[in-house]
Amino acid sequence: MNFLQQTQYMSYYVLNLTEGFKPVDWEGALVPVKEIEFKTFKFNGGELHFEITNPEIFDYEAVDLMITLKAKSFEDLGKLALAVDAIERQVLVKTKRLFIPYFPAGRQDRVTGYEALTLKVYADFINSMNFDSVLSIDNHSDVTTALVNNSESIDNFDVVSTALEHMELTKPFALIAPDAGASKKVYKVAKKLHEEYDVDFKVVQGLKHRDTKTGELSGFQVVADDLEGMSCVIVDDICDGGGTFLGLARELKD
Fold it and tell me: Considering only CA atoms, which of 104, 109, 247 is closest in space to residue 178?
């Protein structure tokens, strides 16, 4: 995925904050790209230190900046804030973009009692850094887009269509919505499939129960009488432990 093809800048600075994660492809890019290098360490008190190690790449004119991050903890967001501060303290940043594939706390987009609306806490923190755009992939719900300033979410249609290209589609197949919350997302994918593919398929609703205190899943159901001989594609947004896919797959086979 080449995000640089979407830019119109004379030069571009990229900061990949997660080790081993470099989603921006600058080989053969239409614009010159300079990668910002850095180092971090923790003081004895536990505080994180962030330092740019190749400041010579900056020409100290206005720069366009892309930061990429796989956020798994508050410390990752802390590193992001330190990085933004380190750059903006020395360089005039003309545009500032963030690519954060999974927006953290995406599931925690509602409250059921005396608990934190965690998604809003994360969103407010990122909003405080004033990004011109925040790009994520297939957000859990529209609440993320509503809470995060200048945000955009890539939907999972491309993922589904790629999967279908590797399946045997000479017979009907089914798109499976794993729960009520995924229904809107699945029907959106179905609409695009009808527009772009000449294939026969049906949409089937799945159901499950999640214990809000423990996160444990149970009560999987498939609202369909018979799926004999059909291939089934479960369309969901987040997979960390795989519990939804495994539990629903058992019900589909039954």
Answer: 247
**Dihedral, CA atoms, 153, 156, 162, 164, nearest 10 degrees?**
-160
CB 140 within 8 A of CB 112: no
Q: How far apart are CA 251 and CA 220, in angstroms?
A: 7
pLDDT band at residue 26 using 50, 70 and 90 as cut-offs: low
Structure confidence by residue, pLDDT tens digits, 158-205: 667 766 776 665 567 888 988 887 888 888 888 888 887 777 788 999
Backbone angles phi, psi at 56, to 5 degrees: -65, -15
Strand order, beta sheet including 201-210:
217-223, 201-210, 173-177, 231-234
Greatest mean pLDDT among 78-82, 109-113, 152-156, 228-232 lies in: 78-82
In this structure, the strands spanning 63-68 and 12-16 are: parallel
Token pair of 138, please? Answer: 């297939």
> How many whole angstroms separate alpha carbon 10 and alpha carbon 30?
9
What type of residue is 246? L
Q: Which two tokens stand for residue 146?
A: 């509503």
Q: Identify whether the C-beta of residue 75 lies closer than 8 Å to the C-beta of residue 48.
A: yes
